[in-house]
C-alpha cells in the first residue's frame, strides 16, 4: 500500500479541491455524519434495492474489457458487504492467491459495489502502474506504463484497504447537460459512465430524456404539443428551460428528439444502476407551461421576471412558477415522479430540484416548499441573488424536514455558503455528507478532475508537492525532470488562483470588447514589445482597478513570465514524450494560454496607439493580432481536443432529417457565440459566455469579428471622427447571426504536428526577436507589392 501522504502544508492549489478537506476538518462537522435518519433510510433502500453482486461485478468486468482488454484475465473483481469494510464503503486490493503466470488472475479487487471495485482498479493502475485516466478530448488514457500480463506489480502482503471518509461522491451541474452532453450518443455516454466509475462517482445527475416524461404528465392536463413547443428549449438550451430561466429558445423539440432521448436515458440509467451508482433524477420545481395557467386560473402562479433577454422579449422570457403551497404543485410533482418510476422501473430515491435559479422568489418574508421525497437543492441561488438573507435562507431550508433535502454548495470553491450560513442551518449538504464536482462544462483541465476525484478516498490532507511531482510521470508514461519542473511552476501559478474571481476565460480573442475604445483603460503599457512581459510587476496584475469601467479587463492572477518558462520547458523536453497524446494536449493548451494573454496585451497596445493617434502603429498591431488569431487556429487544429468540427458534427448526427440537422446545427453554433437573442444593434447579454478556443471558430468567427472592430478604429482615425460604435455592433451582430445559420463543414480530424507548431509560434511571438518589427517589415513589403491589406 502506498505510504499515506503527510499533512505538510503546501501552497494553495485549486481552492475547489481543498474545500473538501477544510469542510471535513471544521469542528463539529463529521464527514460520516449520521445525525439524519432520513438519509439512513435512503442508505438502507440503496442496500436493499441495488443491483445484484453479479450484475455489479459484470459491470466492472465490462469496464476492464473496454479500457484494458489485453489484461482481461489479469484481474478478478468481487463485491463484498459493508460489514467486511468496517461498516463503510471501501475497496480492497490484494495479490490474487491463484496467480500462476500469464493467463491467470494476478490482482484481486474487492469492493462494496461496482463503483468501489472500479475505483479500486483505477487506484491500482494509478498508484502501482503509474497509469493515467482522462477524457479522450484531453488526451485520453495513458496505459503504456502498465506491465504486460503476468508481470503486474504486487501490492503489499495483506492487501491495500481504502475506505471512503464520506458516503457520496457527486458529479455534474444542471447545465453540464447542455454545455457538454447536449449531442452525446450512447457510445459517448458509455465512456463517460466508465470514467465516472473509475473516479469513484456514485451520485451522478441523470437528466437526459426528462422532456418526454414532462410531455406525458402535462398531456394529462390537456396541454398540447404546440403548447409544449413554446415551453421546452432547443437541444442546446434545455438546461435553462428546465430551470425556468427561459422558454422556447432554440425549439421546438421534434417528437423524435423526445423519443430518442428517452431511449438513451434508459441505457444511461441501466448502466449507472449496474455499477451500483445512485442516479439523481429530476423533480418538479414549479416550472409550468404558460398554457397551464389559463387552464387553472385560480392556481397560485407567479410570472417571473426577465432572465437576460434583450428588451425583456416575451417570446423567450418571463416564465411561470406554480407556488409550492398550491395543491396542484404536489399533484404534478407526484405524477412526474410516478411517471419516471413507471418508465424506468426503479429509482434511487434521490431527486434534484432547482428552484429560483437566478430568479428572485415572489415572496420576501416567507418561502413555502413542500418536499415529499429526498430532494437536492442547489446552493447557487443563495450566492447569486441578494434576496437571500439569513431569514429567507433559513425559512426555505427548514420548510423541509431536516435530512430530506441535501443542499449542493456548488460555488464553494469561490464563495462557500456553508461558512456564512451556520452550515446551512443544520441541513445536510454536499461537502458535509459527500464531496462533489459541479463544473458547468467538462473535458478540460484534467489535473483538476484527477485530484478532485481522488480526494473522495483520502482521510488526510494530500501532500500536493508529492502529488504534483508524480502527475506528469503518470500523465505522459515516463519521468521527465524538465516536465516535472514545468508542472511545479503551473501548480504555483495557473493552478493557484486565490483571489475569489471567476470568468477566467474572458480573453479578448474569445470575448471581444463591445465598447468604445476610450472606455478601455490602458494602464502601465510598455512600448518595447520584446519586454511585454518582463517589464510588468512580478504578479502581473492590471495596474488599476477597472471595476468602474464598462469593460472588464481579462482576469490575470499569475506571473506570465513564470508560465512562459513552463512552456519553454515543455518545448525543450517535448521530444522525449512527443508520441504521447496527453502531452500534446497539454502542450497545445499551455501554448494557447500563453498566447491568449499575449493577445490581450497586443489589444491594449492597439487601444493605446489609437488614443495616441498613431495610425501606422494601429495598422501594424491590428494585423499582428489577426495573424496571431489565425496562427492560434493552426495550433488548435493539431489536437482533437480543440476542434469545432466534432461539436457540430455530433449535433447533426442526432438529426433524423435535413430540417432537424439545420435546427440542431443552429443550436450548436448559437450556444458558443451569441447564446441568446439579439436585435440589429443590441447583442445578447450572454454573448461569448460559452466561448471556446476551438480551431475553426477562431479563423472563421473570432478573427473576422476582431477585424470589423479594427476596421472601424482605422476609419475613425482616417476621418478624425468618433468610433462608430453602433455600426460596429450592427456589422458584428450581422456576422454572428450569419455564422449561426451557416452550414460550412469543419474538420473533425486533427492535422499538423503540435510540437513543431508550438515551437514555431514561440519563436514568432515570444522569443527575443521583436515580433512587431518583423510584422512591420512584412507589411512594408506587402504594401510595396500591393498584395494585401490589414482587413
From TrEMBL:
Keyword list, A-Z: Hydrolase, Signal
Segment forming the signal sequence: 1-31
Coiled coil stretches, renumbered: none
Record domain Alpha-N-acetylglucosaminidase C-terminal: where: 467-763
A GO molecular-function annotation: hydrolase activity
Listed InterPro entries: Hex-like_dom2, NAGLU, NAGLU_C, NAGLU_N, NAGLU_tim-barrel
Residues annotated as domain Alpha-N-acetylglucosaminidase N-terminal: 58-153
Domain called Alpha-N-acetylglucosaminidase tim-barrel: residue spans: 170-432
Highest taxon of the lineage: Eukaryota
Keyword Signal included in the entry's annotation: yes
Gene3D superfamilies the record matches: Chitobiase/beta-hexosaminidase domain 2-like, Glycosidases, N-acetyl-b-d-glucoasminidase
Matching PANTHER family: ALPHA-N-ACETYLGLUCOSAMINIDASE
Protein name as catalogued: Alpha-N-acetylglucosaminidase
